[in-house]
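Morning. Coffee machine broken again, so started the prediction first thing and wrote up yesterday's gels while waiting. Chain of 825 residues, entered below exactly as on the submission form.
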Amino acid sequence: MNNKRTAAPTDTNSLELRAQAQLSAGKYKEAIGFYKTLLQTSDSNEWHEKLAYCYVQRASALAAKGMIKEAVVLWANHCQHAQPPYAAYDQYIIWLILSKNKTGIAENIRQLSAQQLDKDYPALAAILGLLALTEYPEFALDLPQDSAFIAHLQLVKTALQAYQDNDLAKLEESLRQLPYRSAFRDLRTALIALLNLAEPAQVLAKIPKHSVYSGFAQLLLVSTFAGAELAKKLVELNCTQRSIISNIKGFNKTQIEFLEHLTRQHEHLSDKVKFNMAIQYQSLYGTELAKNYCQQLLANYSAGYKDFTKHFGAVDAFEENRIKALLAERKDNSYDAEYYWRLCIKALIVEGAAENDLKIALILRHISQREELAEQTELLIESLQYDAEDRDIYVQILSYYQQAEMTKDYKLWLTKALEKFPQDISVLTLAVREAMRNKTYKKASQYAMTILKIDPLNTFAKQALFSSHLAHARRLMREKSYHLVEKEIKLAEVLNIGKAYTKQSQLLRAFFCYAHEDKGRGLQLIMDALANLHADPVNMHFHASMAALSVGVPVATILRALPPAQEYLLSASEFTQFMQLLEKITNEADNDEQIHKALEKVKAPLKKALTSQDFAESILLSLCKILEKLKHFELLRHCAKLAFAQWKKPIWVYYRIYADNNGKPEDCTFRELMSLQRYHEQAMQSKDFQTGMLLEKLLDRYYQVHPQRGMGFLDGLFGVGNDEEQAIDRMDALFGHLPDEIFIKLDKTIESLSKKTSVDQLVSDLMKRVGNNQNIMLAIMQEPELFSALMIVKAADKLGINIDVSIDEVLECYGVGKNAGSFPF
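Came back before lunch.
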C-alpha cells in the first residue's frame, strides 16, 4: 500500500489569503496561527500589524467570557508586534485590576499620560478613582500629578471628609467644583442624593447601571427605605453592605443584632421564629405592637400560648375566639369559623364600646366572603345595622339583587341607598339606569340633572338626559301634541354631546317634519338621516321601522323608500352595529311589542348573517342576552342552536332550552330536564356561577310546577357512557316520544328491578329471546346505558305499558343485531 502524506501548502499567497479569510470571519485564533506561520517566511510589517490586531481581538473575546488571565497574556503578546501607543491599553489595565495583579497595575498606570487619564480612557479613570478612594489609595501617587483627575480626587476627598464632619456647606461647595465630565461624576451624583433626601431615587436614577458607582447608588437607595421594605432588601445584602446601610441609617446595637438574626433566619422564617423574635426584640417596636403581632401569629402557632401569657398576660375572650375562627378558616371549615366569629361579635356587643360597631360590621363582611351570593348578601345587610355608612356595601347588595332578577328587593335597596347617599354619583347612576329600564323618563331626567349639578361634565348623565328628552318627544308625537315636540328636541340638542347624538335628533326632526309639516320633504329628510346613520340597508330598515312605530307613523311607506334589505348579508362590523342599536332601543323603547314588529322586518337577513358568517362567541352571547330580555324566542332559538353546535357550553344549553320552550321551562321534555341538570353541575364545577344560577332558575321553575317529578333511578340514566351527547341522542331516539308521566310510572319499577337483576341475569334472559349472542355482554360493558335502556323495556313489560319499543330495536340502536356476527366496538 502506497501511503503518501499530502504536503502542507507552502505557497505564501495561499497562506495569506487563508489568514485574511479567517480574520474577516472573526476567527482570530485560526488567523493568529496563519500569520505566525507567514512571519516565519518574511518579516512583513503588514503581517505584524494584522497579527497584533488578532491578538487584541482574541484577548477582548476571552475577557468577555471571564477568562481574564488568558486575555492579559494575549494582549501582552500583541505588544511584540506593535508600537506604542498600544491598542486597548485601557482595557489591558482594567484586566490587570480584575486579576488583582498589583505590580502590573502600578507599572502600567505610571505609563499613562494626563491626556489618556482625563480624556481618552474615561472607564479606566472611573475605576482608578474608585480604587484610589477605597482599596488602593497609593495608586494616586503613580498617576500623572498634573492631570485633572488628581485635582478632582482631592475635591472628592474633601467632600467625603465634609460629609463625615456633617459640614454640608463645605460638602456642597466641593461637589459644585467637580465638572460634569469628571471621572468622579457618578460619585458626585450619589453624594448629591444624600443631600437631596426628599427625592433620592430620582437623583440616583441618573447613575447608569454600568457605572462603577452603581452598587454604591443601590445601597444609598436601599437606605431610603423603611419598615418591611427595608428589611426585605437588607436580608438580600452581604455583611459589608448591611454594615454600610446600618451606618447610614444610624442603627443602634439592638437593631443591628435584630437585623443579623433576621438575615440568618429569613429563609426559614416560620411562625415560631417570627413569634420568638417579636418577643425577643419587643423593645424595638413597643410591647403593645409586639403583643398584637404575636396574637395574630397564635392563629397558626398555637404552641405559643404559654409564652404569650408569660410575656403579655392571658388572651381575652374576643382574641381567643378570633384565633379559633382563623384556624377554622385555614382548615376550610366555614361552619366552625362563623360560629367563633359570632362569639367574637357577642363579646363586642357585651363590651358595649362605641367603636365596636365598626368591628362587628367588618367581621360580618369578612364572614360573607366565604359564603354563596345569597347568604353573602344577607350578611352584608346585617352588617349595615352596625355600619350604615359604607356605600360600597349598598352597591354590592344591589348588584346581587339585579343579577338574581329580584326586582322588588332591588327597588327597595335602591331607595334605601338614595336616601342614605342622595348626592353620590354611583348611586344616582344606578337610579338613572333603573328609571330608564322602567321607562319612567321624568325620574331618569331628575336623577341625571342631580348628577350634572355635582359633575357638570358627566357624560352618562348627559346621555341619559338626551334619551329622556327624545323619548318624551316621541310620546308627544304619538299623542299628536306637536306644539311641544320642538321644545323637547331643542332641550336634547343643547346638551351638545357629540355627532352620534346629533344624528339621532336629526332623524327625529325628520319624522316630525313628515308627521306634522311636509310629508314629501319629511320623507327625504328621513332618507338622508338614515343614510347618515347607517351604511347597510338592514340597519336602515330596522332603525326606520322602530322610529316610525315609536312616533305613530306608518312603517310601510318609509320602508318602501329604502334600499331592499331581505337578501343583504351583514358583515361582522355591520352586525355589531345592529346589536348596539338593538340594545340601545331595547333600553329606551316604551314597549317590547314595537321592537318585535321592527325585528320582523329584518328577521330574514339576521338569520342569514348568523348562519353564513363566523361571528365570535362574544357577539352571539351579547345578542342572546338582548333577545332573552325581549323574549324574542324565534331569533333566540336560531342563535342558541348555532352557538351550541359550535361551543357546547352550559350557557348555550340555557339559551337553547329557554328558547325552545318559549321562556317556559316548566314545559321542558325529559331529555331537556336531564340536560339542564347535567350542564348545571358542569357550570358549578367550572366555577361559572352566573350560568349555574341561570340553569338553576330554570330547574326551580320546572320543579315548582312538577314537584312530583324528582326522578330516582332515571336521574342517572343520561351521561353515563363515554360520549354523553351520543348517549342522550340514543335514549331520545328510543324513548323520546314517551311523555314524562310514563317515565314517572316506570321509575320506581326500574329502581326495584335494578336491585334484583344483575347484568348476567339480564343477558341470560335476553339470550333466551334473541339467541346465544355473546356480543350483548360486551356491548353492556362498553356502553353501560344499554343496560338502562333494556331495564326500561323490562319495566314496561312488567307494568303492561305499551311503549312501542322492542328488545330488538334497543339492540339494533346500539349496534347489536339479533344475528350479528360481530360487535362494532
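The radius of gyration is 43 Å. Going to sketch it on the whiteboard this afternoon.
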